[in-house]
Amino acid sequence: MNKKGLTIIIIVITIIFSVTAALVVLGSASKKQEEKKELERFVDVFEDFENTEPYNLQEMYKGTYKNLYNVDENYTIDKAIEDECYVKVHSDTYNEDICIEFINKYNNKQSAFLRKVLVTIEGDIIIEDYVYDSSEDKAYKFIDVTRDKFMADEQREITYSVYDSPYSNEEWKNIITDLK
């Protein structure tokens, strides 16, 4: 094969790799957009859950719950305890009765909400919201690690999981067991 033929092959291979890389980047961006749309949909679900009967959190707990996406970035353990969240600071727990109430409502197939606030070893706050919607037989778990300074920046986000038929879902059963 002559030099000209080899050069053409190298150019074609380079073009193929460039097009493939561009498609991967576009596919990744498209997937990110889909994930963002899905998360926004669940933000709407959460807001509906928070603002409609029987899901009015102000009424349920007589606390000052805010939508997870609107919680102050400087939220403190003292404020979480005051807000009647279930709080775990290493081996200490606060407002454990709220966790027990959530589990009891769930066990009785009643809609329920629990906000759990954890403290990392470094002292940062992680907020977890647990929602059981009896009308749809679905459970939701939202985790906010945006305040965890030891997480990589791109991992500091709010994530969620949805559990259909939670009474037969092993992962959700484990979550309930771990709450106790």
What this model shows, in words?
46% of the residues lie in helices and 21% in strands. The protein has 180 residues and is of the alpha+beta class. The chain has one domain. A 6-stranded mixed beta sheet has the order 2-1-3-4-5-6. A hairpin with a 4-residue loop joins strand 4 and strand 5. The longest helix is centred in the N-terminal third of the chain and has 49 residues, at 3-51. Residues 49-64 have low confidence and may be disordered.
Task: Give the termini distance in whole angstroms.
Answer: 72 Å
Structural class: alpha+beta
Write down the domain tally. 1
Rounded to an integer in angstroms, the radius of gyration calculated over CA atoms is: 23 Å
List SSEs in N-to-C order: HHHEEHEEEEH
Uncertain residue segments: 49-64
Name its key features.
single chain; 180 residues; alpha+beta; 5 helices; 6 strands; 46% helix; 21% strand; elongated
Question: What is the secondary structure topology, with strand pairs?
Answer:
Elements: H1 3-51, H2 57-61, H3 77-82, E1 86-89, E2 92-94, H4 96-107, E3 112-119, E4 125-133, E5 138-144, E6 158-164, H5 170-179
Parallel strand pairs: 1-3
Antiparallel strand pairs: 1-2, 3-4, 4-5, 5-6
Concise synopsis of the structure shown:
This protein is 46% helix and 21% strand. It has 5 helices and 6 strands; from the N terminus they run αααββαββββα. Strand 3 (112-119) and strand 4 form a beta hairpin.
